[in-house]
Write a structure and sequence with these properties.
Shape: flat
Strand content: under 5%
Number of helices: 10
Largest sheet: none
Oligomer: single chain
Radius of gyration: 22 Å
Helix content: 55-70%
Distance between the termini: 78 Å
Number of strands: 0
CATH topology: Methane Monooxygenase Hydroxylase, Chain G, domain 1
Order of helices and strands: HHHHHHHHHH
Number of domains: 1
CATH architecture: Up-down Bundle
């Protein structure tokens, strides 16, 4: 039998390798295992793209290329919103079907081991020294930019792109927690022995706390009664 000739698209995208990464029907513990694997595999790919963009943005900040940094930061935020939306598809999986996969296939595996997620947790906050160096070069402060954004519009838009990334990342963690509550429950332990409810404390962790503090400071300055 002659070997199948791949199209240029198949060769470039490497579709044969990519589509061989999921289990075949006879290998699945449950039909929903294809959904489970596919969601998580694509999530890791998207996180790889986001981390790549974060690296690019770091250099743009150092070169004062704020329009470009703004653009690619918003791309990162869009990626986080995209993977957040994919969690809704996971919610269509009946808990009973998930537990078949969990008990027979996952071993002690857990989303806490996601290399993309853990790399994101580590890398995203590392942008902040680039930001503080930028502000020092511009002789600007976050509070001043927030008080009078039109005086430094490029800085304002850049800081808003950062907070958009932060918000989108927090939203992903929030929706993941609710996925866990819906499919596993929040009164039981994960496969790593961690109570699922402990995820609740992480959903409001800020990536760039000074930006959120500036919002509070501005409100207090304008309306002291909010103290």
């Amino acid at each position: 039998m002659s070997e199948k000739k791949l199209s240029d698209y198949e060769t470039y995208i490497r579709t044969e390798e990519l589509l061989a990464l999921q289990k075949t029907p006879d290998q699945m513990a449950n039909p929903d295992e294809l959904l489970f694997q596919s969601i998580h595999q694509t999530m890791e790919i998207w996180l790889k793209v986001a981390l790549f963009e974060v690296e690019r943005v770091s250099g743009m900040i150092d070169r004062d290329e704020l329009d470009s940094a703004d653009h690619y930061l918003r791309r990162v935020a869009m990626i986080y919103r995209h993977i957040t939306a994919s969690l809704a598809i996971m919610e269509t999986m009946p808990p009973a079907d998930y537990h078949v996969i969990r008990l027979s296939m996952l071993g002690s595996g857990s989303g806490q081991e996601s290399p993309g997620f853990n790399a994101t947790l580590e890398r995203l906050p590392q942008i902040w020294p680039n930001v503080t160096a930028l502000l020092e070069r511009r002789k600007a402060t976050i509070d001043a930019v927030y008080r009078e954004p039109k005086k430094a519009w490029d800085l304002w838009m850049f800081l808003q792109a950062l907070i958009e990334v932060d918000e989108a990342f927090q939203s992903w963690r929030y929706h993941h927690f609710h996925l866990v509550r819906r499919v596993i429950g929040d009164e039981v332990k994960s496969l790593k022995g961690v109570p699922a409810a402990s995820l609740a404390a992480t959903v409001i962790e800020k990536v760039f706390p000074p930006l959120w503090k500036a919002v509070n400071d501005l409100t207090r300055a304008v309306s002291p009664q909010y103290g």
